[in-house]
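This part of the workshop introduces the protein records we will be handling. An example says more than a description, so a record of this kind follows:
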Amino acid sequence: VPIDYDGLSANQSLAINAGGHLTINGAISDSNPGTAVNLNLTLGSHSPLIAGTTSDGDMTIAAPINLTAGSFTASGTSFNNANGAITAGAFSLNFTGAAQINADLSVGSMSTNSGSLVVNSPVTSSGAVNMTSSGAITLASTMSGTNFVVSAPSINVVDALTASGTVNMSSSGSVNLASTVSGTDITLSSATLTVSSPLAASGNLSLTS
């Protein structure tokens, strides 16, 4: 069922939690975007707030979500936004398992913490991007933002990453840059570093391997 928050007269918050899996099949948006109202959305799968929480906690966003400049905060076991483009202010993910970005993101900032992360659709951030993972991070679609911080045991950049500010990538394992990375100052630190596409630093460039 779609949610239209046009009726709100001021910024509001909405929390949706599930003890197991959580799927959003209906669009969430403001049908009259001329009114400056933001919705702050918090989603939780495998939520400790629900009595009888199971070990299941997959979250699927299967419809578009447009919060104007409201925040999007989600947590659980795994995340997938196939068919669910998201427009928001601050965008935050905290998942113990795999997180996949499979539809466009247009956000004010981005912060992710996950068991692994794959970005398969374009991400446009008007602010900072911070991605941390206990597993591999693969950036397979274009990403843009101000300052980027990326930390994981394995980092693979397959499509262009464009920062108007700094880029800092650190890995205990490998960093593989198969597409252009650009920014002001670029700092790369890893046990193994492979660069097969241009690094465009308008300021300082630091490589440690």
Notes: The mean pLDDT is 93. The longest strand covers residues 12-17. The two ends are 51 Å apart (CA to CA). DSSP finds no helices and 29 strands in the chain.
